[in-house]
Amino acid sequence: MPAPDLIHQLKQHGSLILEATRGLTDEQWRWRPTPTSWSILEVIGHLLDEERDDFRARIRMVFSGADGWPPTDPEGWVQERGHQEREPQDLLDELDRERTHSLQWLTELDGVDWNSACVHKELGPLRAGDLLAAWVAHDLLHVGQILKTRVRLTQRSAAPWSTHYAAP
Questions:
Q1: What is the pLDDT of residues 48-66, one digit of tens each?
Q2: Which of 28, 45, 46, 71 is the most exposed, having the fewest neighbouring CB atoms within 10 Å of its CB?
Q3: Prediction pTM value
Q4: 67 phi and psi angles, rounded to 5 deg
Q5: Contact 102, 10 (CB under 8 A)
């Protein structure tokens, strides 16, 4: 799939994220399905972190010819940056601003070689195109996580009725 198609998908994901989170109460935003899993609010914070500090930064790094691969700590960032204590709309607005910035930058890239690569010490060579494709997939995986959490919330709130017929 060519880069413009992947960039177009990233643009569409903003709407997916908004729809997946529409109508949540504050308690639903902050509810964790298990003590060690992320709330929907933390997932949004993670998407923001990855937007700003991982995918866009790493693609920029590959195109600049930088050596090395700076460490990331997605799980730690969620805690360190206090996403669970943030206001949902503030995080959504910040994610939207960062995505707009990313899309503007990506669409202005001209004549870049999406096969340019940087070596990751554990994964080996990663091309800019690999990172772009992973960015699209990452968004979708976390939209799925949000929807799965919403199913769990429905199962909780529907009691005494069961969702077993459709969602065991």
A1: 999 999 999 999 999 998 8
A2: 71
A3: 0.94
A4: -95, 150
A5: yes
